[in-house]
Backbone:
């Protein structure tokens, strides 16, 4: 039997499982995004937002939007692009704040999904890791109805985990065990372990 590398980054020769998040993926402090790295980086897109109180020299483009609005806009763009290319994709949605809730079961109806997404509001804590575990369960259950489907979990988060009962390591282990690949978009505050979870999931 083979054992998986230590995902907490003790082995410097295996950067793909560095769950501590010391990747070369850095957010542009002026409000852009940077996903480049010498080794390709983890599959994480980081977006930084500037404050309304930022000095004029730091302000670029239109008025800033809230974190939750940025997350919603990112998912809207993904759904619109999937529809434009007529990808055979079933998508659901899970919100996580102080609670983790499946607000939309996996569906072909992107219009209904977007309408439910727009009703999601920022709420207290950030149970990111608990939501990942729930997301794996939802993806695996949906895949049973779609033979041969690739299983992917896309995490859009506007903050670091603050109150999950699950750990980052548990998330990585479950993703690997079930064969689910995780991609992530982080808006503003960064969770240090999320890039490692994404890279380690495959």
Residues:
């Amino acid at each position: 039997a083979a054992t998986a590398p230590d995902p907490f980054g003790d082995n410097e020769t295996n950067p793909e499982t560095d769950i501590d998040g010391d990747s070369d993926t850095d957010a542009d402090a002026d409000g852009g995004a940077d996903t480049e790295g010498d080794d390709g980086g983890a599959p994480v897109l980081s977006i930084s937002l500037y404050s309304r109180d930022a000095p004029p020299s730091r302000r670029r483009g239109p008025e800033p939007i809230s974190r939750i609005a940025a997350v919603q806009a990112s998912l809207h763009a993904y759904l619109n692009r999937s529809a434009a290319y007529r990808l055979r994709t079933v998508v659901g949605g899970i919100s996580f704040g102080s609670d983790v809730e499946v607000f939309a079961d996996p569906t072909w109806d992107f219009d209904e999904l977007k309408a439910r997404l727009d009703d999601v509001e920022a709420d207290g804590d950030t149970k990111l890791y608990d939501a990942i575990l729930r997301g794996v369960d939802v993806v695996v259950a949906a895949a049973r109805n779609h033979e041969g489907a690739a299983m992917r979990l896309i995490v859009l988060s506007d903050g670091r985990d603050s109150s999950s009962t699950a750990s980052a390591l548990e998330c990585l282990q479950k993703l690997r065990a079930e064969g689910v690949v995780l991609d992530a978009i982080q808006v503003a505050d960064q969770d240090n372990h999320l890039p490692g979870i994404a890279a380690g999931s495959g």
Observations:
- The longest strand covers residues 100-107.
